[in-house]
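## Example pair
The file below holds two records. Each record gives the amino-acid sequence first, followed by its structure token line.
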Amino acid sequence: MGFFSFLGDAGKKLLGKGDDAEAIKNEIESSFDALPVQGLVVEVNGDTVALGGVANDQATKEKAILIAGNVEGISQVNADQLVTLQQISDENVREEETFEPVFYTIKKGDTLWGIAQDFYKDGSKYPLIVEANIEVIKDPDLIYPGQAIRIPELVV
């Protein structure tokens, strides 16, 4: 899990108002009820954000990547230094065994129902997408082109 690409011309307007790294760090931390990443480090270099620290779990790691990537002016997120507690505690976890997240960039005309239909073959499963992206999707009726979301693995 290294670099993730995003549309740089879409997202929340946080940059250029002072310390960009601090603004993105505050956005990540304030989007969760509890501190999501221990020792969170955010570095901004041009249109790239590098994240470091220890996330509570894989879902938190993916959400932190999305929050950073859904900032206008950011087109790449480097998560090489962002690990999970499980990765630290389980020395036997091999790189190929970890679930690779599926990110989707919303296009004009997309609906969450349609996205769920495409990925799960069942549009009524769109609440799973909303729940997995609650820090990014504040209102299921307000998604916008260029917004990146994660598509959770469907557990049957």
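Second record, same layout:
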Amino acid sequence: MDYLDSITENQIELIKQYKTLVERAYNLRQTDAPLSDFSEYEAIKLLDKLNKLRYLYRDHQQTAV
């Protein structure tokens, strides 16, 4: 498997998880605020990982050119 393909697949999986956590946080906001906050915190951690992967992807593309 190519390095860029691996990064792309990982990004897709993290995006799915991120969307699920954000939706869960939104749905729980009215009924269970602490659990909503925890889901939001987990989503923020995933977003940080996504940003790192985007940086690696961009960095790899710039060096390939």
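Notes on the second record: The two ends are 20 Å apart (CA to CA). The longest helix spans residues 33-64.
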